[in-house]
């Protein structure tokens, strides 16, 4: 039995048919040599036999006047969770995207363990895919990534098959609370409340000082982002798009200007989104604002679940060269991080929950077009395994994150590193962004331009 | 532009992730001679080209302080509505059921025209299927059946292909209101209100008179049905089961006792459900109660949309022979119909909305187990075409209704007649009825027993 944390519960409380709160991963594999459909069917049979471990065997139980808890589902139904799908011929990547967009739009059954696993057969060029969907109330990107790594192997021998739901051992206890949930533990309530109060005070002080006294224009003030086509009321259907680039090249782009990989991702997304919007006749004069989730775990922490906050990062100005844009965003990011430095986790989480709550409120009251959106898109970076991975002897070729969108912002770009590549998973509201794949094309173009124009990139 | 009626809007208002309010039809076809996967892919391409007509091109638009209306969706997206799915090999009926259970559990996107069409490839024995899902706010069973008939042909030539969304002509105007919605038309508001008041008074008077003065124990009083495993809180996932029998045999079963086809269906469902429950250790001492929807259209009416009410029918006693059970149910049904005879449509609709509202209220307050359920299951009978039908030259072999479940009652059995057979579509909450297919087996057994024991049946 595990209590949910405040943040876990927020992902349940803010969820609606228009804003499902699950995250997912797509893994694309190559069939082992000499294996075909019969091998996949055998794999499927074997998967159904694997028993789930915590939290994959647990379902929600509401508690009167408290946060819900997770209890073992005594009627666990493997046929419900483990699914087999076949793409129509010829099995193109576009057909896969279209299938995933539908699967990703569907709410999960809250009366069952909050995950689904889909084996997808029939992808062109001897490939198959896994689509793994888990509710955000159960895990954040870092935990998802850890589970994905644990469920694949570094050897091609195919002996160590362990699907994501078959947990390696009893997981770390979730009671070691470092975030907002420390507020719930009476023993240090006073100390935590003091941290929260002081921390929020420090944050506000820093914000005002940096922005107005020191004239730091790279700080994103609340409600300072422009309204764009992405600031639309949320609707239930989704579009997906995927692309990937060599990790080393992306890192090299930032090298000469001291920018991080993350800065380069933000700059490419920013330039691409500006181009995409301008092709639709939209040219926001102000910088766009990205919400960037930040993992709050200390290095080497074993803690699972949700332990994130987020920074609002002001992106580049309308007309900038790749170098200028990257420098501006790198400065914004540093400002944002410095804002949170030395601030207790409890306060930074409260501040970022405030931004999410504001967006939810704005969306709930249909204030799109009246209230400026707290941010224009989410850009998230989740580190994955560095070396080639296998499942049951099949080599993992590509792996894309498929995340969720937030209220008042119809786009999420999450990147995931694996085996020397950085994989971009784009998720958008289908009504607000019916031509999401055009944004993917803009990202590909901008990537080439950055590679040509940045000094360190070649 | 069409206003929704009160009943239409009720199907939207009472909808939740646990209680989706759509209805669906499953059609199973045989591939034309010499045709295979390539032909199906061509069919799919052709279907995508067919433009939608009203209401298949219309989406909801909320109106402040009024019922929503339907307006043309200017960004109609055929790829969203028209979908292609392939079953994994070997493509058994069980795999089809499992796929449909998932598709049927998913809410529809309220920001788009409220329908989905799925072509399902890969069914064993040279078969393929259509699964057509439409929101109940747009149509009831009778309208669905009419649209299904219009979208198939009586000739095998394959020239007249017209999918369900390609409407034959401008449909009948929905303003001719005979039900509860007449209340909205100011011109006859007073007359309608008088009808409603008088009618509800008559209904109550009849109920009291028949039950208590005349001692008619076959009348179902509100809140008189026993609690069973079906009276469970609704959950999001579904189980489906299908069976079918010769129509002539079912009619013959009722013949000697003057029972209708509908009475026979109710009696078979009742006996089968009692057996199913008793195998799980449940033996309700009181009769079960079925909610039976009734089409309010005068014969030959062209009116589309929702125009139904429903009767609560007391089913048989625990231990009865097929003949006794059929006679008892036939008497209940007559009592129920007489209750509504000469009662204005507006009053019978209000009464049955009251029962539905009571169930929704009970479920919303989690009163399962405290409040007796207003009914135990829904049993619905929708007449379909009598002669063999074709689509694009493929012969329709079977066609099953896939309806929705109601609050406080986890089971819906809808039957649909076609080409000399009666097709049973069972839909249940998967948590309340994890072994729904066992109920299908009970129905098959009971059918055989009825056939052996009823005088007219052979």
What name is given to the CATH topology of the largest domain in chain A?
Chloramphenicol Acetyltransferase
Major sheet details of chain A:
6 strands, mixed
Low-confidence stretches of chain A: none
Task: Tell how many strands the DSSP assignment of chain A holds.
Answer: 15
Radius of gyration of chain A: 22 Å
- Return the average pLDDT of chain A rounded to an integer: 88
Strand content of chain A: 15-25%
Oligomer: homodimer
Order of helix and strand elements from N to C terminus of chain A: EHEHEEHEHEEHHEHHEEHHEEEEEH
List the strand order in the largest sheet of chain A. Answer: 5-6-7-2-13-12
Principal-axes shape call of chain A:
globular
The chain-level structural class of chain A is alpha+beta
Provide the helix percentage of chain A.
25-40%
Q: Write the CATH homologous superfamily of the largest domain in chain A.
A: Nonribosomal peptide synthetase, condensation domain
Terminal Cα span of chain A: 53 Å
Give the domain tally of chain A.
2
Largest interface: A-B, 34 and 34 residues
Helical stretch tally of chain A: 11
Keywords:
homodimer; 458 residues; alpha+beta; Chloramphenicol Acetyltransferase; 2 domains; 6-stranded mixed beta sheet; 11 helices; 34% helix; 23% strand
3D architecture notes:
The structure is a homodimer of 458-residue chains. The first copy, chain A, folds into two domains: 2-150, Chloramphenicol Acetyltransferase (2-Layer Sandwich), CATH 3.30.559; 188-383 and 399-457, Chloramphenicol Acetyltransferase. Chain A contains eleven helices and 15 strands. Chain A has helices at 6-13, 37-49, 78-81, 93-105, 141-150, 189-213, 247-255, 261-279, 322-340, 345-364, 436-453, and strands at 2-3, 22-30, 58-63, 66-72, 82-86, 115-123, 127-135, 238-246, 289-295, 308-314, 377-382, 390-391, 394-402, 411-418, 421-429. Chain A has a six-stranded mixed beta sheet, with helices on both faces. In chain A, strands 8-15-14-11-9-10 form a six-stranded mixed beta sheet, sandwiched between helices. Chain A has a three-stranded antiparallel beta sheet with strand order 1-4-3, with no helix packed on it. In chain A, β6 and β7 (127-135) form a beta hairpin. Chains A and B meet through α2, β5 and α4 of A and α2, β5 and α4 of B.
